[in-house]
Structure formats: C-alpha cells, structure tokens
Specification:
Radius of gyration: 20 Å
Oligomer: single chain
Strand content: under 5%
Helix content: 40-55%
CATH class of the largest domain: Mainly Alpha
Structural class: mainly alpha
CATH architecture of the largest domain: Orthogonal Bundle
Shape: elongated
Largest sheet: 2 strands, parallel
Length: 127
C-alpha cells in the first residue's frame, strides 16, 4: 500500500474502521454480563443468570448494500471487487438511468461483470 495510490490507502483505512466498529459492537453485551456478575456476586451467580453474549457482527448478519441509495464509499466497502472508481461508475449509471429495478441490471454498469455480480449477489439489496 502506497500513499501514491490514494484509493487503496483510503480503502484500507475504511476497512480498518469497519473492523473497529465490529469489535466495539460487542462491548455493550460484555458490560451487561459484567454488571450482572457484579450485582449477583460472581461466586454465587448461577451460569444461567449471565445474559447470552451475541455473536460477532460479522457472524450475526452480512451487511447489506442498497445499490439504489448507497454512496461511493459504502459501495466500495460493501461490494467485493468494487473500488471507489467503480463505485462512482455505479452512481453515475444510477443517476443517468434511474434506480436499479433488478440486481442483474448492475451488470450493465461498465466494468461490472457477471463474476462481480455473482460474488456480491447475497449482499445487494434494492430497497
């Protein structure tokens, strides 16, 4: 990664921010468990008294990307194989032809092939 390639630099920073958000999303559940243990007394609290810790955000659900409303940064971060330049192409297509009516219509965008479409089919939403 080089500062001479700003899109890669920014994309890496966005990925790090996403990872940090996922890790921080677990704190409320962990603090809730700690509070229960402190209130009940860790030694006397039965195992069932502690609330269940939710799974990691990545395991809980896949982040969906609405291709009709997402900005370039969201498209680049959420779609595999799509960088900022290609995300801007998606937005230009959307502005020229109106909202996408089907997921398959994304393949009409210059540079988005069937393989990119198939890799991202599970995360793309239209509403």
């Amino acid at each position: 990664m080089s500062i001479n390639q700003p899109t890669q630099y920014l994309y890496g920073a966005h990925q790090r921010l996403t990872l940090l958000r996922e890790r921080l999303s677990r704190w409320p559940a962990l603090l809730g468990t700690l509070a229960v243990c402190l209130c009940l007394g860790a030694a006397t609290a039965p195992a069932s008294a502690a609330p269940e810790v939710p799974p990691l955000a990545a395991e809980a659900s896949v982040a969906r990307v609405n291709i009709n409303t997402a900005d370039a940064a969201t498209l680049a971060a959420g779609l595999k194989g799509v960088g900022l330049s290609r995300a801007q192409d998606i937005i230009r297509y959307r502005e020229a032809y109106g909202p996408f009516k089907s997921v398959e219509e994304l393949a009409d965008v210059k540079g988005i092939g069937q393989s990119t479409l198939e890799r991202n089919r599970t995360v793309i939403t239209l509403d």
